[in-house]
Amino acid sequence: MVKKSRLFYSDEYKVIEKSIADLLNRQSDVFNQYSINNPRSVGGAIEKLLVDKFSEIIDSVLYDYKITDASRKSLGDFEFTDHDGFRYIVDVKTHRFDTTFNMPNLTSVRRLATLYENPSNYFVILKVDYSVDNLNVIVNKVTFVPIEFLSWDCLTLGALGWGQLQIKNANVVEIVPQNDRKDWMIKMCDRLISHYSKEAIKAKSRSDYFEKIKNSWLK
């Protein structure tokens, strides 16, 4: 089997980025005056469009497409495989350009670590940056990359569960094309070890505080 994805270790993914932008910008009559200014509504509509129409973007000779069960347990919104045996799980994220700050969750570090035990799996971020003109959504930029192409300079860790990978600021996303997965995962582990140490110190401080509160009430 080929060791690395032809899709992402060539310029093919950039062609798909352009095709996604073209597809979305061709849509009309999708939004109305009540939904256009609601980022959640716009995001949901863009996600549904991509799930329904992604098969029109990829080459059916090279890829097999299927819609993922859209439950909270699903890692992505849809997935596809190629004939080299690689599996691509795609998570759609949307971002309106004129919002001042947005810090989207990407995935659980535990789930990503489990997924990446198999080198044939790719967790892909499909980020759609858009602006609004009257009742039209204009897609300004599409990012379609595996998570390991995201620089650690633009990522952070949330405290939920084992830890959540997050983009620090959706307005600033740095891509490292053809980044090495091994190096990226080692950096993630280093950051998590440091993160857990800080959380342990924080938990001890909070525990001590409420021990004092408890003793105060006991008196």
How are the elements arranged and paired?
Blueprint: H1 12-25, H2 39-53, E1 63-67, E2 78-82, E3 87-96, E4 105-108, H3 109-115, E5 121-133, E6 136-146, E7 155-158, E8 164-167, H4 181-218
Parallel strand pairs: 3-5
Antiparallel strand pairs: 1-2, 2-3, 4-8, 5-6, 7-8
Describe the 3D structure.
21% of the residues are buried. Helix content is 34%, strand content 26%. With 219 residues, the protein is α+β, with helices and mostly antiparallel strands. The chain is built from 4 helices and 8 strands, in the order ααββββαββββα. The N and C termini lie far apart (70 Å). Strand 2 (78-82) and strand 3 (87-96) form a beta hairpin. It has one domain (12-218): 3-Layer(aba) Sandwich (ECO RV Endonuclease, Chain A).
User: Termini distance?
Assistant: 70 Å
Strand content: 25-35%
Whole-number average pLDDT? 88
Poorly predicted tracts of residues: none
Shape: globular
CATH topology: ECO RV Endonuclease, Chain A
- Please give the radius of gyration in angstroms: 20 Å
- The number of domains is 1
List the total number of helices.
Answer: 4
Strand order, main sheet: write it out. 1-2-3-5-6
Give the helices and strands as they follow along the chain: HHEEEEHEEEEH
Tally of DSSP β-strands: 8
**CATH uppermost class:** Alpha Beta
From the 3D coordinates, which CATH architecture would you assign? 3-Layer(aba) Sandwich
Largest sheet: 5 strands, mixed
Question: Structural class, from helix and strand content?
Answer: alpha+beta
Fraction of residues in H or I helices: 25-40%
